[in-house]
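Q: what sequence does this backbone want?
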């Protein structure tokens, strides 16, 4: 399935192998190169497997967690002002993300650099929230990985199937909440409070909706990665899959962190 709300998976090249190659729902034996039923990719490169996606995603997460921990510690210890880390991390991450998306070619150094920058950005934000609400950081981390794990189980078991109709619904909902968030930001610049981010009841409901939509975006990310495997793209494309999953994780973590801050206010 090529249709996804995650720009990291847009316009993927056509693989050179059989559509029956192993995916997230296939047995482990079929994921090995020897279990490939069609001709190998015409590029001569080893085709991507689920193990490639898992290891590359784990590497990006590890980088983000390490840089995030260091960034949060620097903020909490008072050694660095939050914005001194937050703004550079955000800008560098944004630039790298745009380059990765528009380049349309996987690059391990760029994906890892993006993860490091996002870790610095998220760590600085987390440090600020942790200073106001003790323990919120671990709650947000556990909540994020809990949602990720739950959606992976849902996808692997087929409890919710990624149909064209569901895909359109998720993309439409994603675009809708993004437009609302941008509208809320613009209106706030003019002193207008739409109630979406003020910590009130509407803000809590809105955050819950956004978290739900972000969670469903994982289904599209898993399906896009599975499509890479079925199409037998070269193994290097696992970095692109890892990047796509990382962008959704960043979005989900920020929204969970925001929701928890609402719930812990007096």
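A:
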């Amino acid at each position: 399935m090529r249709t996804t709300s995650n720009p990291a998976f847009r316009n993927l090249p056509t693989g050179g192998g059989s559509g029956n190659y192993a995916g997230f729902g296939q047995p482990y034996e079929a994921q090995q190169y020897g279990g490939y039923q069609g001709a190998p990719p015409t590029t001569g490169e080893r085709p991507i497997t689920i193990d490639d996606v898992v290891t590359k995603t784990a590497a990006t997460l590890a980088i983000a967690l390490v840089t995030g921990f260091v960034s949060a510690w620097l903020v909490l210890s008072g050694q660095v002002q939050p914005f001194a880390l937050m703004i550079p991390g955000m800008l560098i991450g944004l630039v790298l993300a745009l380059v990765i998306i528009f380049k349309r070619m996987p690059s391990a150094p760029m994906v890892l650099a993006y993860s490091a920058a996002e870790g610095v950005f998220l760590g600085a934000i987390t440090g600020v929230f942790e200073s106001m609400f003790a323990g919120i950081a671990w709650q947000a981390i556990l909540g994020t990985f809990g949602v990720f794990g739950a959606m992976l189980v849902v996808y692997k078991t087929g409890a919710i199937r990624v149909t064209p109709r569901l895909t359109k619904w998720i993309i439409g909902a994603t675009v809708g909440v993004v437009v609302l968030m941008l509208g809320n930001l613009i209106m706030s610049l003019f002193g207008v409070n739409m109630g979406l981010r003020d910590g009130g009841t509407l803000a809590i409901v809105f955050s819950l909706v956004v978290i739900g939509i972000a969670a469903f975006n994982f289904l599209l990310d898993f399906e896009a990665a599975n499509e890479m495997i079925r199409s037998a793209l070269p193994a290097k494309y696992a970095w692109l899959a890892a990047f796509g999953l990382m962008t959704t994780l960043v979005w989900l973590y920020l929204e969970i962190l925001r929701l928890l801050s609402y719930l812990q206010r007096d």
